[in-house]
Amino acid sequence: MSATIRTQEEIAARVKALESMLIESGVMTTQAIDRMVEIYEHEVGPQLGAKVVAKAWSDPDFKARLVEDASEACKELGISGLQGEDMVVVENSESVHNVIVCTLCSCYPWPVLGLPPNWYKDPQYRAAITREPRKVLSEAFGFTVLDNAEVRVWDSSSEMRYWVLPQRPGGTDGWTEEQLSELVTRDSMIGVGPVAPVAS
Amino acid sequence: MNGVFDLAGTDGVGPVIVPDEEPVFRAEWEKAVFPMFAMCFRAGFFGVDQFRHGMEHIDPAVYLKSPYYEHWVHTVEHFGEKLGKLDMAELDRRTAHYLANPDAPLPEHADAPELLAFVNAVVPAGAPAKRPSDKVARFKVGDIVRVDRSAPKGHTRRARYVRGAVGEVVMHHGPMVYPDTAGNGLGENPEHVYTLRFTSEELWGAEHAEPNGSVYFDVWDPYIELVTSATDNTEGAVA
């Protein structure tokens, strides 16, 4: 253990050295590495969670199943997997605003949101969000939760993965699921931001 | 363990910085590190709880200041060395080589269809932590419980900010792999998992807590003790 803070060049060299040894011992191949990267750069991302939210907004029976067992409901849409084996959706309302965190590491529901943004994994957010959620939401994200709404912070300490079902915005009557899904932002499913504004 | 990684409620670490846009991977080396979790898991380096515990051993100054995926490099090295799967002197030698020759190629190697198949299978299937168990759940939804003050030196998910705090059981998830044994190489020993609800006042004190807030935190059965049974708790919620 050493307290040296490495430069990007030093980390890159260390990683390439490690990668070379893992390749030689048959643990990894560049083909498997490239496939894993491709999946999380292009296939698994917040567009999947947005699809689930839009369906929940449009279909009360699906929403009931989603709130009852999020993992099983997501499987109906072909959405499942690593770091989201057991998911729980928490629903926002006029009186409750939910926000997620992993204060102990970086746990995040990969199957519906992809890999987490860096601020979610950084010490600053993890340190502050359970203690001063309103202040963090307002100062870092420009997002104000009204005083009369309870703020619930979900700290993912187990393998249960929580994520937020935002409220359906007004002015969207008759919209298709595809139109609705365009409104659902990654941040609205973490609970740090609103859904996209509805053009009037 | 009481480590710096257990960050909830830590003051003075600075503001949350949110860039407008950022790529999934910020550097080529991050793309090489990300798959190491799944591939080294497959090769028997660690389970997910041990993987976390490896990161908890990082020097605190490095932990707080280094880019996220460098934490993963440390835990792969930690278990590679511990299990004799990595020759650390050789790793140092190769690091010096690639530092002097950043564009030097990786070793030539053939594709391995079984590794590609593993990636394509594990991403949608995952690796569930729920387990069958004969253990009877000691608690039920509505029970008021206290998190014990135990401070193990090995891996645990007992965050310091909830130790000693009183909360309400709001969900029961059934038995899951127990981090206090699995993270320390002592087996899965599944225990029932519950979600507890704590008021902000309970965690931070009425004087310092933001109003109208609560924190939900998951605990394993051995982490908690009964204060008031739901059957005797006619209020049904923490005041």
UniProtKB/TrEMBL annotation, chain A:
Going by the record, the broad EC class of this enzyme is lyase
Q: Where is the Nitrile hydratase alpha/Thiocyanate hydrolase gamma domain?
A: 10-193
Q: Which NCBIfam families match?
A: nitrile_alph
What lineage does the source organism belong to?
A: Bacteria, Bacillati, Actinomycetota, Actinomycetes, Propionibacteriales
Give GO MF terms, alphabetically.
nitrile hydratase activity; transition metal ion binding
Which reaction is catalysed here? an aliphatic primary amide = an aliphatic nitrile + H2O
- Protein name (record): nitrile hydratase
Q: Which residues bind Fe(3+)?
A: C102, C105, S106, C107
Q: Sorted alphabetically, which InterPro entries does this protein's record hold? A: CN_Hdrase_a/SCN_Hdrase_g_sf (IPR036648), CN_Hdrtase_a/SCN_Hdrlase_g (IPR004232), CN_Hdrtase_asu/SCN_Hdrlase_gsu (IPR023900), Nitrile_hydratase_asu (IPR018141)
Can you tell me which family this protein belongs to?
Belongs to the nitrile hydratase subunit alpha family.
Q: Which Gene3D superfamilies match?
A: Nitrile hydratase alpha /Thiocyanate hydrolase gamma (3.90.330.10)
For this UniProt record, the keywords arranged alphabetically read as follows: Iron, Lyase, Metal-binding
Give the enzyme's EC designation: 4.2.1.84
Please give the superkingdom of this protein's source.
Bacteria
Q: Where are the transmembrane segments?
A: none
| Originating species | Nocardioides panzhihuensis
TrEMBL record, chain B:
Q: Does the keyword Lyase apply?
A: yes
EC number(s): the record gives 4.2.1.84
Q: Which residues form the Nitrile hydratase beta subunit domain?
A: 128-225
How would you classify this enzyme at the top EC level? lyase
Q: Which residues form a coiled coil?
A: none
> What is the role of this chain?
NHase catalyzes the hydration of various nitrile compounds to the corresponding amides.
Name this polypeptide is given:
Nitrile hydratase subunit beta
Q: Which reaction does it catalyse?
A: an aliphatic primary amide = an aliphatic nitrile + H2O
* MF-aspect GO terms: nitrile hydratase activity; transition metal ion binding
